[in-house]
Design a protein that fits this description.
164 residues, two-stranded antiparallel sheet, 10 strands, globular
Length: 164
């Protein structure tokens, strides 16, 4: 379990190390390093997801570790409230950025070990604070540089800490 403190409230997340061991270990490495402190939810799409964990409030991308192998073939589905790894078109490119599904996004699930079929690895779920997620998904957004769907007022991740 981790506790994410955002500028809009607290979100408690249960992680699934039994289903996505490398992904959870990767995420916890960033948590333990304090990497997420001061990052923002930089992509908010109301009927889709909220994405964060990689950019500062000035939209500067933070330096990350090497990518983690995609474990999207773990049987978990991108349903509302789940936490999944963000990545580029390369299925094995996820580093620090994650997203919280605010809808059932089954089209993001693993369908096969092909570039189009890999899907996005679910590795946790929100167990408390979905009201905060709902507040975040409703913020006004704008275009900022190369990025669409950026909150007008930054939604900051103040900290992400392990819950003992």
């Amino acid at each position: 379990m981790v506790l994410m403190e955002t500028s809009m409230g607290l979100i408690t997340i249960e992680l699934f190390p039994d289903k996505a061991p490398q992904t959870v270990a990767n995420f916890l490495k960033y948590v333990d390093e304090g990497f997420y402190e001061g990052t923002i939810f930089h992509r908010v799409i109301p009927n889709f997801m909220i994405q964060g964990g990689g950019l500062s409030a000035t939209m500067k991308e933070k330096q990350t570790h090497a990518p983690v192998i995609n474990e999207a073939d773990n049987g978990l589905s991108n349903v509302k409230g789940t936490l999944a790894m963000a990545r580029t078109m390369d299925p094995h490119s996820a580093t620090a950025q994650f997203f919280i599904n605010v809808n059932d996004n089954l089209f993001l699930d693993h369908k096969g070990k092909t570039p189009d079929g890999w899907g996005y690895c679910v590795f946790g779920k929100v167990v408390d604070g979905m009201d905060v997620v709902e507040k975040i998904k409703k913020v006004r957004t704008r275009r900022a540089g190369f990025h669409d769907d950026v909150p007008v007022e930054p939604v900051t991740i103040n900290s992400v800490l392990r819950e003992e």
